[in-house]
Write a structure and sequence with these properties.
This is Alpha/beta hydrolase. With 288 residues, the chain is an alpha/beta fold. The chain has one domain: Rossmann fold (3-Layer(aba) Sandwich). It is 41% helix and 22% strand. Helix 8 links the parallel strand 7 and strand 8. Helix 2 packs across helix 9, helix 3 runs parallel beside helix 5 and helix 5 packs parallel to helix 6. It is globular, with a radius of gyration of 23 Å.
Length: 288
């Protein structure tokens, strides 16, 4: 009798394990929608998240906007790390805008083409169209966001990681007035024999008026000995900070504010979440 009982229990357990699990609605990020914007023969999905207070329909409240590259990765991370501090009013609530890769193109091909500022023939994939992508953001995306949402046009942040960080540095060089805050996480400043770094050292940039906060973050382990291709990204980040700090010292207004954070025990693939929350907590601090 005891054996029969155990067999019955075992059968019931197997039936429970094999029973189909009822599918629930897929997880979604609250207050988020998406659109498709065209850039001539290219199209990009844009993810937009509104802060909780936006739902209150306060017609006099306008919001900073945080733009980010590599949306499929960065949008989820930034939304997650900012949700609690924004909801608890420890950080200014902001509209989050994620810019995805070109529709119908592989992520690698799209980001390598769109985020690199110069053409490097040693690469198998096309490079060097950062200026076109920056024009798309400036002339198509930002006007669309400002038209359809209650934004504060004087409070724009750009976030980029890796090649996206290189793109952010390019925006700072080419159109520094476009954003007030630049969050450059593990920027790939080594690209094309550091051509972009050389342009930052030029008199043209050194004499240009720049009013911005620049947060540079790099993982402790992003050294020549530990990175996959032997790039010393820690040294590059420190050199870049030194260039920007020198520019600020040479400027009478001294309106270029730069911070560098070397993130302890972080590799290239691990640095971004810490960079995102630390940089945004500086840019959007509720304590003015």
């Amino acid at each position: 009798m005891h054996i029969v009982y155990l067999l019955a229990v075992a059968v019931m357990g197997l039936l429970t394990l094999s029973a189909p699990v009822r599918a629930e609605q897929a997880f979604t990020i609250p207050n988020t929608s998406s659109i498709i914007l065209e850039d001539s023969d290219r199209s990009y999905k844009i993810w937009i998240k509104l802060p909780n207070s936006y739902q209150e329909q306060d017609p006099i409240q306008y919001y900073p906007v945080v733009y980010m590259t590599d949306a499929m990765y960065s949008f989820q991370v930034v939304s997650g790390v900012t949700r609690l501090p924004m909801n608890m009013r420890e950080m200014d609530q902001a509209i989050l805008v994620g810019i995805d890769w070109q529709e119908g193109m592989s992520p690698a091909a799209s980001r390598i083409r769109d985020y690199t500022p110069s053409s490097d023939k040693s690469w198998k994939r096309k490079t060097g169209e950062a200026q076109r992508h920056l024009n798309f953001i400036a002339n198509k995306l930002m006007p669309h966001i400002n038209k359809h949402y209650r934004t504060n046009p004087s409070q724009n942040t750009l976030i980029g990681h890796s090649l996206g960080g290189l793109f952010g540095a390019c925006a700072l060089l080419k159109q520094p007035q476009l954003f007030n805050h630049y969050l450059l996480s593990s920027p790939s400043l080594w690209f094309d024999d550091k051509q972009l770094m050389k342009q930052f050292r030029s008199a043209d940039f050194m004499l240009k008026d720049v009013n911005a906060k620049v947060y540079i973050a790099i993982g402790e382990y992003e050294t020549a000995a530990l990175t996959e291709y032997g790039h010393d990204m820690v040294a590059d980040a420190k050199a870049f900070q030194a260039i920007l700090s020198q520019k600020n010292r040479l400027s009478a207004a001294q309106t270029l504010n730069v911070r560098l954070q070397v993130i302890e025990a972080a590799s290239h693939n691990m640095a971004f979440p810490t960079a995102a929350i630390q940089g945004l907590s500086w840019f959007l601090s509720a304590e003015k």
